[in-house]
Amino acid sequence: MYESYINKIEDVGKLRNLKPKTITLYQKNVSRFLNYIQKNPEELTCEDARNYLLHLQGKGDKASTLNNNNGSLVFFYKRVLGKLWDDNLVPRAINDYAVPEVLSFHDVEKLLNATEDLKYKAIFAIMYSSGLRISEVLHLHYEDISRKNMQIYIRDSKTHTARYALLSKRALDILTEYWFTCGRPTGILFPNKWTGEYLTTSGPRLVFKKSLKIAGLPHSIRMHSLRHSYATHLLEDGVDIRYIQTLLGHRSPKSTEIYLHVSNKALLGVQSPFDKRAGEING
């Protein structure tokens, strides 16, 4: 009944260079909305969107979920249907921001030591030592690793903005061991061993959970906590939050300010905490 409109979301999304995951999310959210409202899309009003979001709120959905659906409906109304959107009638919900879950450096070490598979050990080491998202790590290519400049080139960022990240010497050592042991990949750095294509996040997620259990760490910790830990440890070491914003690839400083729950010391210079703390332990 609504297939043609759902397909239009994909067409418009591609023209606007949206990520495939974003397009799929919009399609799922809008499909649920249309099935709930049961109206001709050409006759939809902002009141319909408001009623649907109130329905989701009544079910107990969190503010982040409401805003997720709000964004999908805004895109559908404005970009696909060409309708006006009333932000006053259908406002975004105020988010409840939780303090990020952060691992101590010793917990990071325990996690890596509990990860036997070199491929996933390298993935987790890069996530922590360079503050990368899991999607960014999985889309790395061999040529993105600069041993000369000790940098990583991020080509596939969530924000569509290319950037450079720190390359930790310790992480490079783990990565080099993986590279020599696991076939010396010269294209995709962490290819699926069966297809040669990019890994999905499901494999690393399963291994991460297994490593948490072996290391005796809380099962509630997520892979993204490695990125949170990187940012928090840099703050603890006195790195200015503006540098951290750049390293993390945040467009808005508000995204980085969530880490200000940690006291900021004097600026010591940008160095990966993966290397700095290792020197403290070995020294």
From TrEMBL:
SUPFAM superfamilies: DNA breaking-rejoining enzymes
GO molecular function, one term: DNA binding
UniProt xrefs under InterPro entries: CB, DNA_brk_join_enz, Integrase-like_cat_sf, Integrase_catalytic, Integrase_recombinase_N, Integrase_SAM-like_N, Tyrosine_recombinase_XerCD
GO process terms (BP): DNA integration; DNA recombination
Keywords: DNA integration, DNA recombination, DNA-binding
Residue intervals of the Core-binding (CB) domain: 1-81
Pfam name, any one: Phage_integrase
Annotated ranges, domain Tyr recombinase: 98-272
Function per UniProt: Site-specific tyrosine recombinase, which acts by catalyzing the cutting and rejoining of the recombining DNA molecules.
Stated family: Belongs to the 'phage' integrase family.
Descriptive protein name: Integrase, catalytic domain
UniProt source species: Anaerobutyricum hallii
